[in-house]
Amino acid sequence: MRNGPRFLNQPPKHEDNMEWLALMRHYGAPTRFFDWTYSFWVALYFALESAEVGGTCAVWALDIDWWKDRVKEKIRGLKNILKKASNTPKEFKLILNCKDKPGIWSVNPFRLNERLHAQQGIFVLPIDATRSFMANLRALVDQNQAAEHLCKIVIACDLKLLSSCLAELDRMNINSATLFRGLDGLARSLENQILMPYRFTDVPDKDLDSR
């Protein structure tokens, strides 16, 4: 909070912890926030971007409203807060202070920074900070219930799939330059373009151009 304003034209208000943490998370600082997105295509890009040929990657899908309904039953006072409004500082403070209540919760600051807006992002945090994200899920409900509301899509990454998917996502304007606004995003995009040709090797043009 003391050093951030040196780099920000409009820094968050001192008391807006949610916005400070969102800003920190998007620039690599350690926080309790996990990055999720409302967009399947953005999630797919992040899964494929760092995937290796011959390996696998995954896209996770989460029914966040269902999980939050489970949490509402366990945290005293949360329902009353949510009756007035959601995603408020009061709600955020209560969630952060529930140290002995496992579960997950989604938050977003009122003011969206450029990256959060571009990535259609939302943050999901483990309520009990002493446990991992998955341990918070397992402690909240049994495995059979969880399986119906949490999905992992595993993708086998051969060269043809990687190259054609990344090319199609780029046509949709989903790449590092658009998702990470600023010079670092542009530089990251240039690196990917330089590295891209090896992923297109021996892939016929008709496969890249097909829709």
Can you walk through the features of this model?
- The chain has a three-stranded antiparallel beta sheet, sandwiched between helices. Strands 2-5 form a two-stranded antiparallel sheet.
- The protein is built from twelve helices and five strands.
- α2 (40-49) crosses α9.
- The chain folds into two domains: 4-157, no CATH class; 159-211, no CATH class.
- It has helices at residues 17-26, 40-49, 64-72, 78-84, 89-96, 114-118, 133-140, 143-147, 159-171, 176-179, 183-200, 205-209; strands spanning 34-37, 56-62, 104-107, 121-126, 150-156.
- By secondary structure, it is an alpha+beta fold.
Query: What does the radius of gyration come to?
Result: 20 Å
Total of helices: 12
Write out the strand line-up for the largest beta sheet, numbering strands in chain order: 1-4-3
Low-confidence stretches: none
Please identify the structural class as seen in this structure: alpha+beta
User: Average pLDDT across residues?
Assistant: 86
- Based on CA inertia axes, which overall geometry fits? globular
C-alpha end-to-end distance: 47 Å
Spell out the helices and strands N to C: HEHEHHHEHEHHEHHHH
Percent helix = 40-55%
DSSP strand tally: 5
Tally of separate domains: 2
Oligomer state equals single chain
The largest sheet is: 3 strands, antiparallel
Strand content: 5-15%
